[in-house]
Amino acid sequence: MPRGRRGGRVSALEGCREEEAPPAADAVPSVLWASGQQPESAAELILLRGIFEIRRDSCDVVLSERALRWQPIQPERPTGFSDRPKSLKIVLNPQSHKKEATQIYYEKVEPLLKIAGIKTDVTVTEYEGHAMSLLKECELQGFDGVVCVGGDGSASEVAHALLLSAQKNAGVETDSLLTPVRAQLPLGVIPAGSTNVLAHSLHGISHVVTATLHIIMGHIQPVDVCTFSTTGKFLRFGFSAMFGFGGRALALAEKHRWMSPNQRMDFAVIKALAKLKPEECEISFLPFNDPQDLEERRAQGSLKSDCNDQWQMIQGQFLNVSIMAIPCLCSMAPRGLAPNTRLNNGSMALIISRNTSRPEFIKHLKRYASVKNQVQ
Ligand SMILES: Nc1ncnc2c1ncn2[C@@H]1O[C@H](COP(=O)(O)OP(=O)(O)OP(=O)(O)O)[C@@H](O)[C@H]1O
């Protein structure tokens, strides 16, 4: 009988296959090999155990008193992992943030995609709306995903374009849209903009290499979107919107793109605060305070049918109204502007600031920077 390294006897168990010893297992020569079998009894003494490569598979090899067994190691596939992408359409906004998206892509992202064997086709956008018209015309069949290298403006433009094509392809009428059809391709987001709320909310951090690795690994994270309409006419898909103070500040920041990103944001906030004024609003909403209740209703399919009799309406003067389908994490709000919203729970946060004094409103804004959650 052959002997293992430590001199234990090795013999075949009933049912073991006898095979030729593969070369990588030469640490334990001339033994009987069995695959896919567990030790016969817990009392069986294990003499040696290790990971060996056997015919290109990593195997858990166990040498016991009575036999040598091995089993290919199956890597765990956590839920949400899909196949890794092989080919990606890259949409890059060279104007994002301090115009460094091109450098970020070619220095940090592309080398990793190359190592991962992913083919890429890059379009550098030339004007606002370019991503939209490109994705309308571009044949995306050969790609496994679209990656946006830029900020939130670019990412939401690409998301809108992908969703719009999906509705068109499915023959869904957007003006009466309640539940959109999913985009046909996943969207990867490389944060290269000024705020990067989407990438930050998706990955928990606004970090280029982290985002790239998520894309390479094929991590798919479903994300809620809102549809924005005016008097029954569909406008666009998006992840968040702000009216009043927030809307004015963002519009001002957009108008002053010639300033540096930090300067224009500070300038916009200060100017919007100086002109702080309430808006008369009427807001209808379907309240869900308990996310579990929401999940259960979605699972039961009772969400839509329940809607009509549960809508609530509030009316009054408000300084700011925000709706956010994602938590909206950013450096200014480390827990997010909407900390109680999840990426994919079918709900969105509606955060309303009633009319109050400017110092009180500033206090409320400052509390977003704290990790203590002000929004219950
Ligand atoms: N070549 C271009 N010239 C001018 N604008 C462009 C160009 N390409 C894209 N855009 C537009 O620039 C806008 C803002 O870009 P983006 O969101 O990437 O950067 P950002 O504003 O710095 O970041 P954030 O939105 O995170 O603050 C987008 O709405 C996009 O449509």
UniProtKB/TrEMBL annotation:
It comes from Delphinapterus leucas. Residues 83-232 form the DAGKc domain. Gene3D superfamilies: 2.60.200.40, Probable inorganic polyphosphate/atp-NAD kinase, domain 1. GO terms for molecular function: lipid kinase activity. GO terms for biological process: sphingolipid metabolic process. SMART domains: DAGKc. InterPro entries: ATP-NAD_kinase_N, CERK_C, Diacylglycerol_kinase_cat_dom, Lipid_Phosphate_FormReg, NAD/diacylglycerol_kinase_sf. Pfam families: CERK_C, DAGK_cat. GO terms for cellular component: membrane. Residues 1-22 are annotated as: Disordered. The gene is CERKL. This is Ceramide kinase-like protein isoform X1.
